[in-house]
Amino acid sequence: MPFAGPAGDLYTLTTQLDLDLYWLNGFREPGQSAGTPSNDGLEARLHPLMALEWRFPFVRRDGSVRQVIEPVAQFILAPYGGNPKEIPNEDSRSLEFDDTNLFSLNRFPGDDRVESGPRANLGVKASLFGASGGYTTLTMGQVFRVRDDDTFAEQSGLDDHRSDYVMALTVSPSPFFDLTNRLRLDRNSFSLRRNEVYFSIGPRFLRFNTSYISLEREQTSDELEAREELYNSLRWQISERWIATAESRRDLRDDGGQIRAGAGLQYLDECIGFGITVERNFTRDRDVEPSTSVNFRFLLQNLG
Prior knowledge:
The protein is an all-beta fold. The chain is about 0% helix and about 55% strand.
């Protein structure tokens, strides 16, 4: 139920009631041995939620530039619990906390886990929009809880009653250039927990993209370590129907190296499409050796 106040402030009230039913067959809780009797049968979960979101956009014009500053506060009421051990977690094991889900009612990517307890998502958005289509946006914020939620892993940034800080800056002055930087800072020391940089330059027919990612440690999987990678790709529109591509991914850690490199050629018209890619994988792990693959792809369009 959206509502606009007399001063221009915006309110949105949301109520939600989820009923999840699981039929289990041969399921064992984490840590149980193979000889432990499995859980079979029906498990149910009822999870209510109520949220009130408040926004107050301040807008002004300066020549051809429109400036917007918008504080956002989202207050959520939900019961504690809702994640019993009897419900397996298959689709919500990998959680990434960033600006894209800062104002989400449930930050888990799937349905097997729910975010519980009273909480508040607080942040601010600032934007500049040019008359020619260029823009710059900045988002930053933090999550506050009445008490800790042990459903979140220790490295997720959401496990404490006060989350890590997340922010994102996007600069796109023209269709030929855009830059995005996403950060996650430790809630206490402001140290860098996650750093992502995405950069793209060039016209539509010749576009170069590069991305850099640095993770202190992967979010919820204990077996995965810190990562620092650089990915580069080039897309060349040779003609209306022919496209050439090249890509490279490299591990920037001290013991890292080239991860993957490849190139491809594609043809596409109104009826058919086909392409060929050559890829070299440099990964070496136990019995896995570096390998080279050649892939062919054929596409029939508009059938039916």
